[in-house]
TrEMBL record:
GO molecular function, one term: carbohydrate binding
Name of the protein described by the UniProt record: Concanavalin A-like lectin/glucanases superfamily protein
Superkingdom to which the source organism belongs: Bacteria
InterPro entries registered for this protein in UniProt: ConA-like_dom_sf
Keyword Nucleotide-binding: no
Alphabetized UniProt keyword annotations: Lectin
Organism expressing this protein natively: Mucilaginibacter gossypiicola
GO BP of this protein: carbohydrate metabolic process
Amino acid sequence: MKKLTLLFALFAAVKIQAQQKYQLYDLSVINPKQWIIPKNDTLDYELGSFDGKNALLIKRKIQNYKSASLAYKPGLNFKDGIIEMDVACTIPKGGFVGLAFHIKDAHHYETVYFRPGSSGTINAIQYMPEKKTEFNWWDYEATKYQAKAVIPQNKWFHVKVVVQGSKMEVYVDNAAKPAMIYTALDPSLKSGAVGYWHGNCPQGAYKNLVVKAFN
């Protein structure tokens, strides 16, 4: 009887998930007039290509371990849902590239970023809420904020992030199982825009950002 009850519960959960409605936001086409994209003395960007694929290229002219910049289209009020994108760190030695969600402004958001240079180690993926002017990643170096994964270097890889309530799952390269599960998302950052995140990396390539916001 217990097994039968469990089967019914699992079936109901799968059915509810399948029926969950969402609003699709295709952000794969970037119009610089509609996006907020960083450009200053130390940072530049171009709509170019990497490995034969059209992409947004963000270039950091001066390396700084406290660097963190966003490129996003304002106006989206994403709370829960699915975020997918393709990203690459275009140098062999790696750098920090990723995505941001629940963006309020340049210094208030949640981020999941990837370190190709630390592929295969616990430092490959890191989550953190950013709420300071200075990007303070060192405050989130505890194991619970990080996860092990194989991250390609100097090559495109696909990322899917599922956000629901306080829980987040991170999938890399269409894997069936999440590389990271985090269950304590910051309660003060409940909703906001979604975009690309560029850390301390000479050049990152970003494309195919699509958001499914749960209704």
